[in-house]
Amino acid sequence: MDLRFTPEEIAFRQEVRAFIRENLPADIYAKMKLGHGPSKEDTVRWQRILNAKGWAGLSWPKEWGGPGWTAIQKMIFLEENQMAPAPELSSFNITMIGPVLLQFGTEEQKKRFLPRAANLDDWWCQGFSEPGAGSDLASLKTAAKLDGDHYVVNGQKIWTSTAHHADWCFVLVRTNPNARKRQEGISFLLVDMKTPGITVRPIISIDGSHHLNEVFFDDVRVPVSMRVYEENKGWDVAKFLLGNERTGIARLGKSRERVNAAVDLAHKVNMNGQPLITDPSFRQRVAQLQVDMKSLEITQYRVVSAYDKAGGGRPDPLSSVLKVKGTELLQATTELAVDVAGPMATPIWAAELAAMNEPDELMEAGSASTGSYLFLRAASIYGGTNEIQKNILTKAVLGL
Amino acid sequence: MDFDPSDDQRLLVESVTRLLGDTYGFAQRKTYLARPEGFSTDMWSKFAELGLLGLPFAEEHGGFGGGAQEIMLVMQAFGRVLVLEPFLSTVVLGGTAIQAAGSNEQKMVLLPAIADGSLKLAFAHGERQARYDLTDVVTTAKRNGGGWILDGSKTVVSHGEAADKLIVSARTSGERYDEDGITLFLVDTAASGVARRGYATRDETRAADVSLSNAHGEVLGEAGGGLAIIEKIVEAGIAATAAETVGAMEAMNEMTLEYSKTRVQFGQPIGSYQVVQHRLADMFMAQEQGRSMAMLATMSVDNDDPVERRHDFALAKVGVGQAGRYVSQSAVQMHGGIGMTEEYAVGHYFRRCMVIERLWGDPAYYLQRLANEIA
After folding, report:
1. Which residue in the set B1, B3, B319 is minimally distant from A5, CB to CB?
2. Each residue of B20-46: pLDDT tens digit?
3. B1 and A287 in contact by Cβ < 8 A?
4. Among A80, A284, B342, B354, which residue carries the largest CB count within 10 Å?
5. What is the pTM of this model?
6. Rounded Cα–Cα distance for residues B352 and B77 (Å)
7. How far apart are CA A29 and CA A322, in angstroms?
């Protein structure tokens, strides 16, 4: 047991921090520092810089272009990248489809997709949820019928993040409607978004952004070679993917970045004639968040290093703790930033305001803070709602 | 970072767990409580035989060269069964004081005596007016010939009655609240001028008020430089009791889970109801977050960076305190009426956690410290 960071880990953190500082494009940094999210182009640009450095593969083995990091190093990298703040690696590419193909994919699938996923040459999206299958994912209905060497897919997916940017989508489909258990009739397909019969419709979320979509499949023909793992074994793939998703989902660096931004801003705004930063109740709120972030940080290191030692495989049920606590923190920290912004949190930073000469950084940052506050109400819903995570814990850990 | 215990540490946990499994059932514990000391002197001897009382000391001092991690593992096991013996007072607090401030001679004499079970210590620092302020010391010590004479009183000295010697803080210069001028002394409890009045505390252990009137004391460490040592003692205590709280949370969660499987209402075990399941999941999460913070405290004991160490102890104290409070309150709630009874174990864990939360500062106190540090 050595509960401190090793000198190598400390040096690694410095290396990562220095690389990001020197290589993150100034325009992306300036925009994200104000609290805006990155555009698709920003994300692609930054991921390619990281990939050129050999860092984009994160948890992938070296032979597939991964950096060969330990679990602790991965978490350090993620935290530094989020805190910078820099665009995050595409989670669909790096923590979802990448590990899935490494674990379950054919050699040909790996060769075709992994290098392009690392470099964001293909933008992936996730076709899991359906109108009737949210928390109860296994009740999904989108059907795939075998027709020669193709599946013909019909149905609808919903809440598909960034489908409008995507080149490819990994989709859960029902290949056996008569399976004894619903989980046993599901397969995992890779679908080219340019295939005829796919329609993407935007869903505007409460932050005003276009992030979510509905995706309709109308006689979409998918080659059988695009199925991952065995037919009707797609649920195993999905469980593996969701377990991986949970370990990365805490986004502690993002919470830290939001608190830092709120504290910075609290020096610039007043409360009863004094800078807000001097207000004891504000300071106590920040202190409590520091406590919560620290315990999540250590829990996260415990989970990922145990996962690493076990050689991956079944996700630790403790990863549900990370999901619940991490997303609660994301929500609490974005809420803090909005509260600091006060009335400046209400305007929408769009063309009219951006074109005016008067608005200052405070208004832009205030508006952006509301964007992430509103958007991250989804954090306790996506990736398996926090209520579902508690169900997982009661089953897996408590045995109820 | 590496969270796995070494083989030696695993063996330590196994042997402690085996000993406590044989000797520390809830019913057996009641018989220890009934002894005049409020704990079992037989258990104390068994701890000595097992090497626990010398665990953190160097081999030349009759110890086993362990450190904060070994203390964490032992305290966690102790927390699971609510050990009553004065291990915290003697080995952790007293041992830390002597290791950190003792002269070579003091170490050679006192540490082996702790290790073999013949010397019990108590940390007599807190005063009635001080609440959690470590510098609020008005007990005085004055030079008298070659020695020192102490006057004043100390309150809620844990295991003060059982102790053979007290580690007493007293002001040798300066005013109340001054950081300089506090000195630590070893005071023999049998010496003239030392009076102790013992009483029970809510966690069923015993504490004492100590009054010192022209009592002889032997200096421990540098005169006037006691605060740094007091902080070290307190930090070791925070780390140890954080681990104890983790053990207590584990026990409460296990009890509550078991109860939820056996208690039937409306024709089903109450654990089949989602509202109960989610509360259990919340309790489990609090336990694990608390465990992380107990680890933080343990790894901070030997942190050489004073600013970071102080900050991390504050974080850990708040985190563990809040987790312990949440699990305790929830455990009683989930048990319903039976959780309110003295005969059932859960309330005893509740009270120990509540006492620990108030040792050397509660979450509100440390939250304020953290709040003051924000730049």
Report:
1. B1
2. 999 999 999 999 999 999 999 999 999
3. no
4. A80
5. 0.94
6. 14
7. 28
